[in-house]
Structures are given as C-alpha cells and as structure tokens.
Amino acid sequence: MDDQQLSKLGWKSCFSGQLTELEERTAFPVRVGSHFGSRVLCLTGKDEITLSIEQLEDCGELAVGDWLLLDNETRRGARRLPRESLISRKAAGVKSQTQLIAANVDTLFIVCSCNHDFNLSRLERYLALASESRVIPIVVLTKADLCEDRDAFRQQVLQLQSGLIVETVDARVRDDMEPLSYWCRSGQTVALVGSSGAGKSTLAMSLGAAPISTQGIREDDSKGRHTTTVRSIHCISAGGVLIDTPGMRELQLVDCEEGVAEVFDEIVALAQGCQFRDCSHQSEPGCAIAEAILRGELDARRLRNYQKLQAEQARNTQTLHERRKQDKKLGHFYRATLLANQKRKY
C-alpha cells in the first residue's frame, strides 16, 4: 500500500486506521472514481481498475468517492470503508429511492451564476443538503463578469446562513480563483453541485481538472444542457481531488430535517416564542414569526421556503421508510417461500 500515492486521492489517517493487520497484508484500498451502471472505475493513485458490479457486491451500494478494499489476488471487493460523509438526494422522478451523489467529501462548492440561474431558495436547498451531510458549504457565484454589481449578489447570499463563505468569481481570472485554492489542497476532496449551465465545468477546469465536455447555454434563460453526464473524480492543481457532478434539474431533500433546521436556525429560534406550540405561522394570535415579518426582521420568502423544504423532506422520508418496510416484508416472504419449497423436496 503506497500511502503517498493514495494521499493524492484524498486518503487520510481516518481511513488507514480502519484497516486490520490482516487486511493490510491481503488487500489494498482503491477509491471509486466513476460509476457507469454495471461497471465501476476504481483508482489506486497509480493505476485505474475497471470492475463489474458483481465483483464489488460485498461492498454494498456505491457512490463516487467511496473507499473500497480489494483482495490482492482476486481483485474482488472485500468491503467498503465507513464513510466520513455522504451526500444524497431523493432520486429524480416518482421513484421512492435515495440517489447517492458523492461520498467522503470535505467541502461542497455550491455553484450558482450571476444571471438568470441566481435563486436564493435553491441555494437554501443546497445548503440544507450540505448541513445534513456534514460537509463545509462554499457558495461560488460564477460568471461575475456578466453582472454590473457582483457584490450585490454576494451580500444577498451572505444573509442565508450565519458564517457562510461566499466567493464571487470569473473562473477565467486567476486572482478570482485564488480564494478557492485553500479548500482544494492536498488530502482534501471537493464536490461541485449546481444547476446545468451554472459554470461548474469551467470552474473545474480552472481548478486544474482534466478537460470536461461542455455545451453552450441557451441565451434566453441562461440554462444549459447537462454538460457533465456522470459523476467523476479529478485530480486538481492545488493537490486535492474534485468530484464533478451532472447539473441537477431537480433536488428533492430526504432525511434532511436537521439540515433544514440548521439553515433556517433563526426561524426555528423565533418559533419558540409563538403562543401556540402547533402554530402554522399564518394567522394565529401571538405568532412570533409573523410579528418578525411585520417588523421587517424576517423575509416572508424565507419562511415560505423553510415550510416548503420542511414538508418536502418529511414527505419524502416517510415515503422512503414505507418503501423500505415493504421491501423488507417482501424479502421475508421470498425467503419463507424458498425455505418451504426446499422442505417439500426432502
């Protein structure tokens, strides 16, 4: 095991400390670099290994950024190392499933451009996802060259969460990119998320990632086609690694109650002062939140988005848990049927 080569991929002591003495002798670690459905690209720091899902079945459900142990002789997956962080969402569409976005991420660059793509409510959604995933969020406002007052955009975003770091950049200007280099240093893993056409691919290439296939954005609404089609890991100039993700047209939250509460912590605190515990913050007497809105201390848009995200994550979480419960019952039924058939044979 070459720790120096692995460190280029984000290998840390928290991972090496999980290996047993036997595993150090009989297995070697790899990082999931990309996932192509039935095939998985694994990185060693020196080489790339493409394996089938069947060869990695003992590692469970995989996300780009996962660390796996492969057997020295067979190169089959032995196990997946416990994750330091996991970013996930409800799968797009009507399916009651969770989609894994990236694992073992240290910092999440939430990319939004200074044009029609700029949307405070969407940024709050990404911030809730970052808080729930226990990763550091950095909002990166791109295409600053296209707006007259870049600081006006930045000031709006700074109001969304206390202590939030916001960088406004023209990704083609080196000085603009310099503040991001700290988060991209050796041993660090950064993930990019944002809408299609927000400038993620340009940002990734400016950070030193290999060229990423891009398509132009439509001028009428500043929206782009999905310029990145798969999640993938790239080594970057500052020494860290970057996980690029496809543009998201839909980001549904699931199992995100704490994340939503942390992003809207001032609303949660104000609610403690409402006269009624089940106050809906609409027209009830003694509503501390309604009073704060009237005094101009709280934006009504922010309350609406808090209630929307709170209801959305609760609904999706309940639906997902019901699906898991049904799958578990179905599994018990199949096993019981199989056992009964085996008994009949004998």
UniProtKB/TrEMBL annotation:
The protein's required cofactors: Zn(2+)
Chain residues that bind Zn(2+): C274, C279, H281, C287
Record bears the keyword GTP-binding: yes
Coiled coil: none
Residues given in the record as GTP binding sites: T142, K143, A144, D145, G194, S195, S196, G197, A198, G199, K200, S201, T202
Record domain CP-type G: where: 94-251
Gene Ontology MF terms in the entry: GTP binding; GTPase activity; metal ion binding; rRNA binding
Stored HAMAP family: GTPase_RsgA
Protein's UniProt name: Small ribosomal subunit biogenesis GTPase RsgA
Organism: Novipirellula aureliae
Taxon lineage: Bacteria, Pseudomonadati, Planctomycetota, Planctomycetia, Pirellulales
